[in-house]
Amino acid sequence: MREETRSSRTLYNGRVLTLEIVDVEREDGLRSVREIVRHARAVGVLARRADGRFVWVRQFRKAMEGDVIEVCAGLVDPGESPEAAACRELSEETGLTATRLVLLGEVYSSPGYSDEKVTIYYAECDAPARALRLDEEEQIENLELTEAQVEAMIRSGEIRDAKSIAAWLLYRIGREPA
Fold it and tell me: FRET pair for 4, CA 20 to 30 Å: which of 27, 33, 109, 169?
């Protein structure tokens, strides 16, 4: 199944995303319109301390009008590799440095309307945390959770961020680091 783009126009171009209206034609000749959010590349990091606790972040998300518990995450800067972005975001949001960084996979947050790709990493962190270096607009609280607490919070719906649940699943299934 394919769709051929006949035309497209940009309605909005911002710092993080662009909104496009795309006129398409399907293989069967039917024409339709797609609204597509072009999103900057992102990373997510499931961090684990030497004592086995996982470091998560809680922050207010305006789109949700409430706090969200999620893995450390952020955008990949222009010219930066996803691996470098993962290390930078980990340091900025948790004060931790990865002694080991493992690629777990890539996920698309909502492919029905967005091209956002999140590269997911697992990080082992030994050293004590340093002071956070948050972006000016960020307010973040770190949470250190056991494996049992993470899974209970996912089951209860307290953790419901898609990239974070995907990170946990990628960690728990056959890709779990030794």
Answer: 109
